[in-house]
């Protein structure tokens, strides 16, 4: 969250004629004008220590406030502290009031008020010893400096107007320019007890954002509370309204209770549906959109059009519904047809690198160009004003460079996922024109992880020439002996310090492809009166019995689809026997090692007698040729595959009929090549791995001739 003080003038309120009648007796007519805010400035949660009213120096810049006070001379201020909806109302009223007092003390140099806040801790709001250490570090004053002197020096330092490089700006008298108010600059002129009319704490009664019921249930869980505190930052704020010059209030008639009083006075000013307004409902609500989250009608009337609570859009501003990321799907290796691109959408605007898995996009390194589009940019004329920036998570250890962007402006950008790690793509407006994102300029943020997968040495594809004869058929393998067995290990590295963030969305598996099929069963002609014609049955992988045999090679070989269907992505192209195992962490405890084990056991069957000639079969010949792939995909893009390695193997089925229909081996073999990882990873498109089309194991039949 930005530490620069947010300031803004309020929209002008048109005057209306005021009609006053003369008195008719011994009486007075009284005319009272409404309180009309002319401007506002806001101290964000980042200006304070967590659960504390101490004002911290990090990035603090009083310059915007100085400019605002010069623009509106003579205005009168009142300070409203706000807390987030965590904890009870009474505690939050006290903390929000103490923060408001700290701001009052800072602006007026009321050292006594700061000493009171420091000397009287309230719950978690305990200034010591951190506050004194911070003030000494900021001012350079030594230990033992009287606290009053230390506090005054610290206040002066925070309230000194500084230039772009941090140097003090000189005023007309040549001295450093400072912001300093007096009690006379406030609505009640300091006349009320405990600052009544000038300073108040509004507890958690006027949130800018209210979680949905489901979000609250999730974020209230102990492990999610840090995220809850981050998302609640905007609710924790100190709002200062500047009323038109000459405004003054009677503290005795001011509706807000003092910072020392309980919540009763606040509750009296609630809307009739005040509790409903600040309660958790079915959907998340934000005041800028719904204007129904403030429970106090008095504060709502003063601030419901304030640019500090609903920031006005600058001339180059825009809004967008969501970011839509698309990644091309792997094409059909035989036909070249490509399915529709996969997509991922987010409406997130938080800048955190670590995201809930449901809102985290994960891709494999070099999986293809990702197109990201800002959806429904409004007004449409602002599309050229859309800016993009990609940042790496500082916690990453896997690499240091950034994925490439093809542009930094316009409503569409393309990302080249060339380097692993955890990233955020910020869609932002750029009022300064420097082309760099500044906190508060973000519109939407895509959190994503690029995962590097490194094949490990030692991958094996082993074959055994083992056959089990049958009647009118033969199977490969025997118990404990598989004709093809595959094993390969891979190192996965993602985001974060341990390189494991995002890995849960990556899937590895073995996909088999049929490359060739020449298997034939021979049926010799018989002497008359039997049919003298020789016949054959030829295995047809895609069961195209008319016209001639043929199939679109390569053909996927999977049991995970039904006959007549095609794989739909994800695990559907995989071999039925593929198993993914997590072996543990990678070298140095970084990343994750995974192993893929797989096997295949083809079988062959045919008719005992030829369907046309009715002659018995005599011999078999021909081959089934396979290619084995290890492919990776992510659950975000289940139709985009990356090839990690390849191996080939062939089954040659040469046999004869023993006269009773039983197949007898006559030199059949299973042979294979080494599984190679050289040149991998590469896209499945580049490798020509087949993940689509009809399945060989489901579709093949026999073409009969004649």
How would you describe this protein?
The protein has 706 residues and is of the alpha+beta class. Helix content is 14%, strand content 28%. The longest helix is centred in the first third of the chain and has 20 residues, at 89-108.
How many β-strand stretches? 35
What's the overall average pLDDT, rounded? 92
Distance between the termini: 80 Å
Give the assembly state of these chains: single chain
Helix fraction, binned, reads 10-25%
The gyration radius over C-alpha positions equals 37 Å
Low-confidence parts, pLDDT < 50 over ≥5 residues?
545-549
What's the total helix number? Answer: 13
Q: How big a fraction of the residues is strand?
A: 25-35%
Helices, strands, pairings?
Elements: E1 6-9, E2 37-44, H1 63-71, E3 76-82, H2 89-108, H3 111-119, H4 130-139, H5 147-158, E4 199-201, E5 209-210, H6 213-219, H7 225-231, E6 237-243, H8 264-267, H9 274-277, E7 285-286, H10 287-290, H11 297-303, E8 322-327, E9 342-346, E10 361-364, E11 370-375, E12 387-392, E13 404-405, E14 412-416, E15 421-428, E16 442-455, E17 460-463, E18 467-470, E19 473-476, E20 484-493, E21 506-517, E22 520-523, E23 535-540, E24 555-556, E25 579-585, E26 592-600, E27 603-605, E28 619-621, E29 623-634, E30 642-652, E31 655-657, E32 663-665, E33 669-672, E34 682-683, H12 684-687, H13 696-699, E35 701-705
Parallel strand pairs: 3-4, 10-16
Antiparallel strand pairs: 1-2, 2-6, 3-6, 5-7, 8-9, 8-11, 11-14, 12-15, 13-14, 15-16, 16-20, 17-20, 18-19, 19-27, 20-26, 21-24, 21-29, 22-23, 22-28, 23-35, 25-26, 28-31, 29-30, 30-33, 30-34, 31-32
């Amino acid at each position: 969250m930005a530490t620069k003080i947010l300031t803004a003038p309020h929209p002008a309120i048109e005057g209306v004629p005021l009609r006053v009648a003369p008195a008719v007796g011994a009486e007075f007519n009284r005319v009272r004008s409404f309180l009309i805010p002319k401007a506002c400035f806001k101290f964000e949660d980042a200006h304070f220590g967590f659960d504390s009213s101490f004002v911290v120096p990090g990035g603090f810049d009083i310059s915007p406030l100085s400019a605002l006070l010069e623009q509106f001379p003579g205005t009168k201020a009142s300070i409203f502290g706000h807390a987030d909806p965590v904890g009870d109302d009474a505690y939050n009223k006290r903390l929000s009031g103490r923060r408001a007092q700290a701001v009052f003390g800072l602006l007026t140099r009321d050292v006594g008020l700061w000493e009171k806040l420091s000397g009287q801790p309230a719950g978690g709001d305990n200034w010591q010893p951190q506050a004194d250490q911070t003030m000494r570090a900021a001012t350079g004053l030594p230990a033992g400096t009287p606290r009053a002197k230390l506090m005054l020096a610290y206040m002066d330092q925070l309230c000194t107007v500084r230039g772009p490089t941090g140097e003090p700006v000189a005023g007309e008298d040549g001295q450093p320019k400072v912001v300093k108010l007096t009690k006379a600059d406030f609505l009640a002129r300091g006349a009320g007890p405990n600052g009544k009319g000038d300073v108040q704490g509004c507890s958690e009664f006027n949130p800018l954002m209210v979680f949905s019921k489901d979000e609250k249930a999730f974020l209230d869980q102990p492990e999610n509370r840090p995220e809850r505190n981050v998302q609640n930052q905007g609710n924790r704020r100190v709002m200062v309204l500047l009323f038109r010059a000459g405004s003054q209030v009677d503290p005795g008639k001011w509706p807000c209770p003092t910072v020392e009083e309980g919540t009763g006075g606040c509750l009296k000013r609630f809307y009739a549906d005040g509790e409903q307004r600040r309660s958790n409902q079915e959907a998340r609500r934000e005041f800028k959109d719904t204007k129904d989250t403030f429970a106090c009608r008095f504060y709502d009337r003063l601030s419901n059009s304030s640019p500090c609570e609903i920031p006005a859009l600058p001339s180059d501003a825009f809004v967008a519904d969501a970011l839509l990321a698309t990644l091309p799907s792997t094409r059909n290796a035989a036909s070249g047809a490509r399915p529709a691109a996969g997509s991922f959408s987010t409406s997130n605007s938080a800048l955190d690198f670590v995201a809930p898995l449901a809102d985290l996009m994960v891709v494999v390194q070099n999986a293809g160009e990702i197109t990201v589009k800002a959806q429904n940019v409004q007004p449409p004329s602002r599309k050229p004003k859309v800016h993009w920036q990609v940042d790496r998570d500082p916690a990453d250890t896997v690499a240091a460079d950034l994925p490439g962007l093809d542009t930094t402006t316009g409503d569409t950008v393309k990302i080249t996922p060339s380097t692993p790690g955890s990233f955020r793509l910020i869609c932002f407006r750029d009022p300064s024109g420097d082309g760099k994102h500044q906190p508060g300029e973000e519109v939407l943020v895509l959190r994503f992880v690029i995962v590097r997968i490194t094949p490990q040495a030692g991958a094996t594809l082993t074959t055994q020439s083992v056959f089990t004869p049958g009647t009118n058929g033969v199977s490969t393998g025997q118990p404990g002996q598989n004709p093809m067995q595959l094993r390969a290990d891979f190192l996965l590295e993602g985001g974060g310090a341990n390189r494991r963030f995002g890995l849960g969305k990556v899937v590895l598996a073995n996909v088999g492809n049929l490359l060739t099929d020449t298997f034939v069963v021979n049926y010799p002609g018989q002497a008359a009166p039997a049919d003298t014609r020789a016949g054959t049955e030829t295995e047809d992988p895609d069961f195209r019995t008319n016209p001639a045999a043929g199939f679109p090679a390569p053909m996927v070989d999977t049991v995970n689809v039904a006959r007549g269907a095609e794989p739909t992505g994800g695990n559907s192209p995989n071999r039925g026997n593929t198993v993914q195992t997590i072996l543990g962490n990678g070298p140095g405890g970084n990343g994750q090692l995974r192993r893929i084990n797989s096997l295949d056991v083809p079988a062959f069957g045919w008719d005992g007698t030829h369907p046309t000639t009715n002659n018995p079969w005599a011999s078999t010949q021909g081959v089934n040729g396979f290619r084995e792939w290890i492919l990776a995909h992510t659950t975000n893009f289940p139709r985009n595959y990356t090839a990690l390695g390849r191996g080939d193997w062939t089954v040659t089925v040469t046999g004869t009929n023993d006269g009773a229909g039983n197949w007898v081996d006559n030199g059949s073999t299973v042979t294979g090549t080494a599984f190679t990882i050289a040149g991998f990873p590469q896209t499945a498109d580049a490798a020509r791995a087949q993940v689509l089309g009809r399945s060989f194991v489901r579709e093949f039949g026999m073409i009969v001739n004649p």
